[in-house]
């Protein structure tokens, strides 16, 4: 004869298997089908144009469209200061170099100044160097919101790579501004 605990185990196992088989073979009752509705698109009617209608332009002011640049002149101290104030160091440096080189070559434009150009290309004369210093100092003062001391600016000027490209100057100035 078998012991009672083994019978209880066997009975429990049989009930569990039966419940599992019953759950697996159970089919849900079918759902009622949803009625299908067909959507009939409404007829599209073209807009009716009134051939006698008049466009009222009496109150409209005619403005001449011009494609000319409306801001400060490129390469001006005002333009460079505004660019530095907004944080556009690359553009401000390009315009600074343009202003510096225009003292020697007045016919050059922004297309002649690239970040990959060597800085010495634009700083050929003492007048060009002074112009670049003046523009750079004014622009940085505008960016910082306070005047820049001569000693602090001289230290920055000495740290700029004189044989480097304009892009190297930009990187150096951005680092200097980040240190504040």
Architecture overview:
The chain is mostly helical and 180 residues long. The protein has a domain at 77-178. The protein contains six helices and no strands. It has helices spanning 4-25, 77-86, 89-102, 126-144, 150-159, 166-179. Helix 3 crosses helix 6. The longest helix has 22 residues, at 4-25. The protein is flat. It starts with a helix and ends with a helix.
Outline of the structure:
With 180 residues, this protein is an all-alpha fold.
| Poorly predicted runs of 5 or more residues | none
Shape: flat
- Cα-atom Rg, whole angstroms? 40 Å
- List the secondary-structure elements in sequence, H or E: HHHHHH
Structural class: mainly alpha
Q: Overall pLDDT, averaged? A: 83
Give the count of helical stretches: 6
Distance between the termini: 95 Å
Largest sheet, strands/sense/barrel: none
Instruction: Work out the helicity level.
Output: 40-55%
The total of beta strands comes to: 0
Beta-strand percent range: under 5%
């Amino acid at each position: 004869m078998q012991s009672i605990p083994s019978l209880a185990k066997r009975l429990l196992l049989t009930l569990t298997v039966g419940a599992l088989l019953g759950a697996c073979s159970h089919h849900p009752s079918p759902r009622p089908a949803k009625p299908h509705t067909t959507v009939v698109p409404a007829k599209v009617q073209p807009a009716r144009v009134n051939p006698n209608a008049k466009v009222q332009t009496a109150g409209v002011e005619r403005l001449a469209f011009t494609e000319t640049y409306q801001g400060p002149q490129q390469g001006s101290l005002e333009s460079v200061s505004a660019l530095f104030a907004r944080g556009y160091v690359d553009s401000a440096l390009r315009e600074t170099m343009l202003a510096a080189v225009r003292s020697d070559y007045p016919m050059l434009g922004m297309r002649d100044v690239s970040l990959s150009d060597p800085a010495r290309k634009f700083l050929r004369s003492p007048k060009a160097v002074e112009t670049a210093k003046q523009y750079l100092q004014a622009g940085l003062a505008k960016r910082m919101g306070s005047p820049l001391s001569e000693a602090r600016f001289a230290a920055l000027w000495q740290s700029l790579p004189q044989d480097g490209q304009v892009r190297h100057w930009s990187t150096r100035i951005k680092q200097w501004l980040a240190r504040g």
